[in-house]
Specification:
With 370 residues, this protein is an alpha+beta fold. It has 9 helices and 16 strands. Strands 2, 3, 5, 6 and 7 form a 5-stranded antiparallel sheet that branches. Strands 1, 4, 8 and 9 form a 4-stranded mixed sheet that branches. A hairpin with a 6-residue loop joins β5 and β6. α4 runs antiparallel to α6, α6 packs antiparallel against α8 and α7 packs antiparallel against α9. It is elongated.
Length: 370
């Protein structure tokens, strides 16, 4: 009798304890996890399903013009507002894929050693779409000259987007360095576009503002005074005018007239140090023409002289157009060589947004430049 009574009391205690626990949890604890037939549960599941189906994929295969597969090609995914969105490489069978992409318009830039860089037309990706592109055929790079064509213009436009995102330590522009040694030539519109991007960059304006402040403090050009905002404004306008003239003459106007490329083409560490030094030092007087041949750098030489002559008309107590043209020419040659040394040996290690395939001139880079 006693064991049965004890068992009954124990069971009753356990039941009361469970009941109290359920009451202390209350309805709020149960409501934290919605049941399958709860509207909030259905809404959560529907939202998650829609989000997953909105993402899409762009895939394809890279071949040469004969249809042979090209492994190891570097494919860069870009958007108008985001050059260099993602990079990937083709696998051993030439295939590649970009997954988990938002709906939108994309471009592909495809590069491989010994082949011409390919820029795709716009790929409009719809929500949840799996876009399998037609085979991307890369043409063998020319061995003599760079052909200016519609394809070349499209490639140059894609490369220009990447170059205008290059910054030293993420701040200072490095727009005029091409880390793709055999880059497509820029047409006239692209040369002026690059120049406009350069002269309107906030870092250039900040540099002019700082140098104008130093001139104000040192009372440089005392004819302007140094005691009010108007005198500072004159110095700022003159400083910005100098920058605008040298950039426009040297990097846009004369390059368009003489069909020369205003950029510095990085050689890289796979070349001899002596070759790299000579390449950098000669940049101010030797440049690459749009036809891929080495030429006297008329753009840089005349640009420096023209900017110096023009600046004499708004700088007080100037030495005259002819003398300032000569002074600027000498400064331009020396400054260009020094800048090129830094581009070749220093800035390359600190520049951001350089594409993976851009590593200067390698043994696989076709010899286009003569």
């Amino acid at each position: 009798m006693m064991p049965r009574t004890l068992l009954t009391i124990t069971a009753l205690s356990i039941a009361l304890s469970l009941s109290a626990s359920a009451q202390s949890a209350g309805p709020s604890a149960l409501s934290e996890a919605p049941f399958p037939d709860d509207p909030s549960f259905l809404l959560q599941q529907t939202t998650a399903a829609v989000a997953s189906t909105e993402r899409g994929t762009i895939s394809g295969v890279v071949t040469d013009t004969s249809g042979s597969l090209i492994p190891g090609a570097v494919i860069t995914l870009t958007q108008p507002s985001q050059p260099g969105l993602r990079d990937t490489t083709s696998d051993s069978s030439g295939h590649f894929a970009f997954t988990n992409l938002r709906p939108g318009k994309y471009n592909l830039l495809v590069a491989a050693p010994s082949f011409r860089t390919y820029a795709s037309p716009i790929v409009a990706l719809q929500p949840g779409e799996h876009s399998d592109l037609p085979p991307i055929q890369l043409a063998v790079a020319a061995s003599t000259t760079i052909d200016v064509s519609a394809d070349s213009t499209a490639v140059a436009e894609q490369e220009l987007k990447r170059e205008t995102s290059q910054r030293i330590v993420g701040i200072i522009p490095n727009f005029y360095t091409s880390f793709v040694y055999d880059a497509a030539p820029l047409n006239t519109r692209q040369k002026f576009k690059l120049n406009l991007r350069s002269v309107t960059d906030p870092t250039l304006l900040l540099g002019v503002a700082i140098s104008s402040g130093i001139e104000q403090a040192n009372n440089t050009f005392p004819e302007w005074g140094n005691s009010d905002a108007a005198s500072y404004g004159k110095r700022f306008a003159a400083g910005y005018g100098d920058a605008l003239l040298i950039h426009t003459f040297s990097y846009a106007l004369y390059p368009a007239i003489f069909h020369q490329d205003p950029r510095y083409f990085y050689l890289g560490p796979t070349n001899k140090t002596s070759t790299r030094i000579w390449h950098a030092l000669s940049y101010s007087v030797i440049t690459r023409g749009d036809n891929g041949r080495h030429q006297i750098n008329f753009s840089r030489l005349l640009g420096s002289a023209s900017a110096g002559a023009a600046s004499s008309f708004y700088h007080p107590a100037s030495e005259g157009p002819a003398k300032l043209a000569g002074i600027n020419l000498g400064i331009g040659i020396g400054q260009g060589a020094l800048q090129a040394i830094f581009r070749e040996f220093v800035w390359a290690h600190f520049t951001t947004h350089v594409p993976a395939y851009a590593n200067g001139r390698t043994s696989l880079t076709p010899s286009k430049i003569k």
